[in-house]
């Protein structure tokens, strides 16, 4: 435990209402001790904890992150959320590893409402480990700006990663070894092949189909204006590619290359040609 002058980590636990929070409560009323710098947030189920919550915590300077739920097959919901938590945490560990953060900074445990002493033991052990690792980024050899840039980039890929890994994230396999569910190679490939989508200004006919179908409101759309994808909002679902009418074919999937810059706003107006060129149009300087 930290003594004066020693590094006191920032630690956060997100724990489920029904079991782990009960264990934390019992730990408190039984006067078992654990470091006061561990802050707890109660959620109804560990399955509620999202990849984004964990990345957000690290982006805000948390040095160690704990997720606590009910023991497997004791979850109070159906389908059981702790399987989801188990898959999500193991995926998150690989994502952390990919961006150079020690995955030991993230820990998942099951604690029942009757395991107050066990809760204290886990908290003390985890706190010691994080104290030994030191502040986030230090043991990783990463400056804060670089660390935050990497976390931010990964956070933007979360919707895409969840779509791609939907089946594994929903796996409920009592005999499964969840620590082997994702491999480093698999995650490296997933990130390397993350696509971007781009609208070719010379082909877009401003039919608005993509904008209407986009689930993330990421298509900047206006009548008779070339449509543009807001790359920060885009969740890389590919719906616009499938939705764009074949005769226009204006949406392109880009992998491993930079996305061309968006057409400046003043050049997005589409000028339709006369009858002889019906159906043809081109964006011009407005
Ligand atoms: S890929 Fe999906 S989120 Fe991105 S612009 Fe297209 S429809 Fe919207
Ligand atoms: S669906 Fe295709 S043609 Fe229509 S607005 Fe979108 S990109 Fe342009």
Question: What is the element layout, followed by pairings?
Answer:
Blueprint: E1 11-16, H1 20-29, E2 38-43, H2 51-59, E3 64-69, H3 81-98, E4 106-110, H4 116-133, H5 144-164, H6 166-169, H7 184-192, E5 196-199, H8 209-213, E6 219-220, E7 228-229, H9 239-243, E8 251-254, E9 270-272, E10 281-283
Parallel strand pairs: 1-2, 1-3, 3-4
Antiparallel strand pairs: 5-8, 6-7, 9-10
Helix pairs in contact: 1-4, 2-5
Overview of the structural elements:
It is a single chain. By secondary structure, this protein is of the alpha/beta class. It folds into two domains: 11-190, Rossmann fold (3-Layer(aba) Sandwich), CATH 3.40.50; 195-283, Alpha-Beta Plaits, CATH 3.30.70.20. Helices cover 35% and strands 14% of the residues. It is built from nine helices and ten strands. The protein has helices at residues 20-29, 51-59, 81-98, 116-133, 144-164, 166-169, 184-192, 209-213, 239-243; strands at 11-16, 38-43, 64-69, 106-110, 196-199, 219-220, 228-229, 251-254, 270-272, 281-283. Strands 2-1-3-4 form a four-stranded parallel β-sheet, sandwiched between helices. It has a two-stranded antiparallel sheet with strand order 5-8. Strand 3 (64-69), helix 3 (81-98) and strand 4 form a beta-alpha-beta unit. Helix 1 (20-29) crosses helix 4 (116-133) and helix 2 packs antiparallel against helix 5. The longest helix is centred in the middle third of the chain and has 21 residues, at 144-164. The protein starts with 10 loop residues before the first strand and ends with a strand. The protein binds iron/sulfur cluster (SF4) (2 copies). One iron/sulfur cluster binds at residues 197, 214, 216, 218-219, 229, 234-240.
């Amino acid at each position: 435990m930290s003594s004066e002058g020693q590094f006191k980590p920032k630690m956060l636990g997100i724990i489920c209402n029904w079991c782990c929070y009960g264990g934390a409560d019992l730990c408190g009323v039984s006067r078992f001790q654990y470091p006061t710098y561990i802050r707890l947030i109660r959620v109804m189920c560990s399955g509620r904890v999202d990849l984004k919550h964990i990345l957000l915590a690290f982006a805000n300077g948390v040095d160690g992150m704990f997720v606590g739920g009910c023991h497997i097959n004791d979850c109070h919901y159906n389908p059981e959320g702790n399987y989801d938590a188990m898959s999500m945490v193991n995926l998150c560990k690989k994502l952390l590893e990919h961006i150079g953060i020690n995955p030991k900074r993230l820990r998942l445990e099951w604690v029942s409402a009757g395991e107050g002493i066990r809760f204290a033991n886990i908290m003390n052990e985890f706190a010691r480990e994080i104290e030994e690792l030191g502040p986030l980024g230090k043991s990783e050899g990463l400056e804060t700006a670089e660390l935050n840039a990497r976390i931010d980039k990964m956070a933007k890929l979360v919707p895409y990663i969840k779509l791609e890994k939907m089946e594994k994230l929903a796996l409920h396999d009592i005999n499964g070894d969840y620590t082997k569910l994702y491999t480093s190679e698999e995650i490296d490939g997933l990130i390397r092949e993350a696509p971007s989508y781009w609208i070719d200004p010379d082909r877009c006919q401003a039919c608005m189909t993509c904008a209407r179908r986009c689930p993330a409101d990421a298509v900047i759309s206006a009548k008779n204006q070339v449509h543009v994808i807001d790359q920060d909002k885009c969740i890389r679902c590919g719906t616009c590619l499938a939705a764009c009418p074949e005769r226009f074919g204006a949406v392109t999937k880009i992998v491993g290359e930079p996305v061309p810059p968006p057409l400046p706003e003043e050049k997005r107006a589409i000028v339709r040609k006369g009858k002889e060129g019906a159906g043809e149009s081109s964006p011009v300087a407005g």
